[in-house]
Specification:
This protein is an alpha/beta fold. Helix content is 38%, strand content 10%. The chain has helices spanning 3-15, 19-25, 32-40, 48-56, 85-90, 103-113, 126-129, 161-172, 184-187, 192-203, 234-237, 273-288, 312-315, 334-340, 353-362, 366-388, and strands at 72-77, 93-98, 135-138, 176-182, 209-214, 225-232, 297-298, 320-321. Strand 3, helix 8 (161-172) and strand 4 form a beta-alpha-beta unit. Bound molecules: S-adenosylmethionine. Residues 78-84, 99-102, 105, 120-122, 139, 141-142, 161, 362-364 line the site of S-adenosylmethionine (SAM).
Amino acid sequence: MSDLAVEIKSRREELGLTVKEMADSIGLSKDGDKVLRFWESGNGRPDKVVFGKIMTFANKRPYARKITNPKFKFIDLFAGIGGIRIPFQEQGGQCVFTSEWDHFAQKTYQMNFGGEIFGDITEVDIDKDIPKFDILLGGFPCQPFSQAGLHKGFSDTRGTLFFNIEEIIEKKRPKAFLLENVKQLKGHDHGRTYKVIEEHLRNLNYTVTPAILRAGDFGVPQNRERLYIVGFDREEYDLPENYVFEFPEPPKTATRLGDILEENVDPKYTISEKLYEGHKRRKEEHKKRGNGFGFSLFNADSEYTNTLSARYYKDGSEILIDQGENMRPRKLTPRECARLQGFPEDFIIPVSDTRAYKQFGNSVAVPVIREIAKNMLRTMEELESSKNAGCTYQRATS
Ligand SMILES: C[S@@+](CC[C@H](N)C(=O)[O-])C[C@H]1O[C@@H](n2cnc3c(N)ncnc32)[C@H](O)[C@@H]1O
């Protein structure tokens, strides 16, 4: 085997990537895994540019931070790929505990942030495993409450994961928390599910403020609405029960899909004839039944897309990019999905395209979290100074 073949293979193995993951990560075309395998066995060789991409891929973790004097400490629960973590880190926070049980999400998280990742949160020994922290972050699983799921709520075991969050808050008494979920959680079971959640948090003596915010109002071209719940420890800050957190005002700057689209997209993202025919047939059937369901086409001039979901990899029907009359539409690339969620350009995507679609669909619009994080930190500083000045909470509440 040639030295080059050995170098390629050992680089990939060093990163813990499969051939498919490496091929997709460095942007090889369809059947790129076969080509890479070929190179690794000493048959043929990549050109200089591609070889360079292989050897430099993920050579540093862009979001690994060890701050000597962190402004605050936080924990990242149901962490996914760390979309909620990035903005809190930007605010000067140090992540002291992460929980995520999905092997592939862990891979993406590890490559970007490093550090240890705890698996199943239901197995955690709160006193032993979780160090002291100030802010709890958790975008807990939404399938039990979502439109796409079966709306089972607390009767689905995934729905009860909220109670694990509750137990951690009760035992560790953080100063604040931020929870994120689908907006349907608010209306699930005629509002009863949300009411239980709010009551439980209030019973722990925390303030609770919910808000539904739309990603498109925070600068990314996506019509994603999510429920955010922010709470502060009433005892810590001497807050009245009716205290209301001020969520950020959406800047509502104009958005345009063209701003996040890649140039020269590989033909592997163009959907197959069979899939396209199926999409068209289903759309026609829906039309006959008098409803507007079916695949949606967007182009560079579109203001925003539909919500990117974790099921995007299946058929891409919610967001297809028009490539003109003579070409079938294409799916978004994983990098475009990252941009649609406002992830920074240097965020590493070390998994297959299918996994990447799932991970970004499950994640959050980072710019929305960024503005919430700023407001939370500002509020905590204000509350802290009133406390130090010996004042009780003075601002107007509603
Ligand atoms: C809605 S996603 C959150 C995504 C995250 N906010 C992000 O930015 O990527 C929920 C995550 O919870 C994880 N999860 C579900 N049950 C879990 C459990 N029992 N322990 C740890 N993680 C779990 C899932 O694998 C999924 O990644």
